[in-house]
């Protein structure tokens, strides 16, 4: 008890309880105020009942002693909040050199547990500059996880918890895994266990606890979190390879159990897994499907993403199943049903794994896919493939290397008429075609390009829509862009003016679009599709087709700008439109890998 206070207690002027509390706010002592934070008592006057405290936010704060007793709490001098007042230089040194110790001290001052926003309030702006805090915390978080001094949460709503120092490293790791609340946290905790497996050597009980926890988590969550469940099981199998004592119970769920019941859904869920872990899932297919494992694996080939399909291809080739792989690829390339990721892989691996199936048909498949994707609603799925076609300057030449004159001209005509690429990009691609096959020169110079000179055919309604789009471009978008340039120019220093450069780049796009639209409208031929010849499939006809099983499909072939894919209305310039034109009743055609027979041809405009 403070000497001056002790005299008051002995004289009976204050109780011992009040004396004890009063001694806690004697000069030199530390206290905590709810609003003003930590403070150090600077001076007091017991006779007048006044006290002066230097708080973090308020220095030389004068208060009544009675008020100070009621509104402050005692702080030990080694409490982190007190150290912020006395040893800020030391704390800042720890922030730079030993962030783990800094966080540890902060947690100890709060009973061993804090939310991340509480930690932020304690450190940001005082110990660590506000502008540096985010970067500092990312680094500190990694160091904390590596040190296992504290349990680091994956969500801001969960607490940062100081570990019991008496726990062994193995116990800490297992506890982290068991306490993890979601699959992502469990996967991270399992990776830490695998990395530090030396702590578990021979510890069958700990390994059994991990195994049991994984099994329970997967059974509960695999319907909602299939990919993450497979990730956990792969991690468990990696752990078993390291272990000499872990046995997998007969009733434990296995990777093969899941893929046997989930089918093609497995492929859709594997995209986030690293390639090595996807490979381990694919290697479980023989156990899951027996003799049909190759077919089942190929069923997901086109929807596992670029890493996954590359691993499937490598696995099949290594297992001596390359013929089935190449037959699958060839069928879907010719049928124009291979996806963007798969076509991209075929192109990139054309001198290695995919060499047996790489030819001009791959180029046709690419153009067909890009055309379909450009007409579909929603986000484009083929943008990476389209960029690759432009960037790989040797691709066109390689595609046409084995093509004959007719095949080359068909590919060149399709590319030349395509609306997928911007005009300058299309000219660049055509230049590569001509370099590889000079006989296609006439498609660019104009000889033999009658369709180009005459313009395309389209309905009057579609032409009016194009005119309305052009009017909007000229009357609204271009003037707005001019205004944007003017505003951006006012910001000064055009060399480093990002807004100005963006507006100027957009101006180029708009002007090019105006030029293309005006040229197309100048040459387009309008029609109402009346008096069409229905003795064969023509522009303005409806073709009724049927396959060998009796499945029927109706396709309407209209003008260049009249496509409505979801209603099976297609342009005569599309690949499917080209394949149908000229067919008569009884003729057959391959559509989406199915052989269809023309059963009837009728006029679209029956008036």
What's the shape? Answer: elongated
Strand portion = 5-15%
Uncertain runs: 446-453
Which strand order spans the largest sheet, edge to edge or round the barrel? 4-3-2-1-5
Counting H and I runs of at least 4 residues, what is the number of helices? 30
Oligomer: single chain
Mean pLDDT: 88
The percentage helix is: 40-55%
- The CA-CA distance between the termini, in Å, is 109 Å
For the CA atoms, what is the radius of gyration? 37 Å
> What does the main sheet amount to?
5 strands, antiparallel
Structural class: alpha+beta
Number of strands: 15
Can you walk through the features of this model?
Among the domains are: 3-79, Roll (SH3 type barrels); 87-162; 321-454, no CATH class; 457-527, Helix Hairpins, CATH 1.10.287; 541-603, Roll (Chitinase A, domain 3). It is 54% helix and 12% strand. The protein is built from 30 helices and 15 strands. A hairpin with a 5-residue loop joins strand 3 and strand 4 (61-64). Helix 5 (88-97) packs across helix 6 (99-108) and helix 18 (305-318) crosses helix 19 (322-334). The longest helix is centred in the last third of the chain and has 30 residues, at 460-489.
Break the fold down into its secondary structure elements and pairings:
Layout (H helix, E strand, L loop, with lengths): L2 H8 L5 H8 L6 E4 L3 E9 L4 E6 L5 E4 H7 E4 L4 H7 L1 H10 L1 H10 L4 E3 H8 L9 H15 L2 E2 L7 E4 L6 H11 L3 H13 L8 H18 L4 H17 L12 H8 L2 H5 L5 H8 L2 H5 L3 H7 L5 H14 L3 H13 L5 H9 L11 H16 L7 H9 L3 H6 L4 H13 L5 H14 L5 H4 L4 H5 L2 E3 H30 L8 H26 L1 E3 L13 E6 L5 E7 L10 E3 L3 H6 L7 E4 L2 E10 L4
Helix pairs in contact: 1-2, 5-6, 9-10, 9-11, 10-12, 11-12, 12-15, 15-18, 18-19, 18-20, 20-21, 21-24, 28-29
GO molecular function: translation elongation factor activity
InterPro entries: GreA/GreB_C_sf, Tscrpt_elong_fac_GreA/B_C, Tscrpt_elong_fac_GreA/B_fam, Tscrpt_elong_fac_GreA/B_N, Tscrpt_elong_fac_GreA/B_N_sf
Organism: Rubritalea halochordaticola
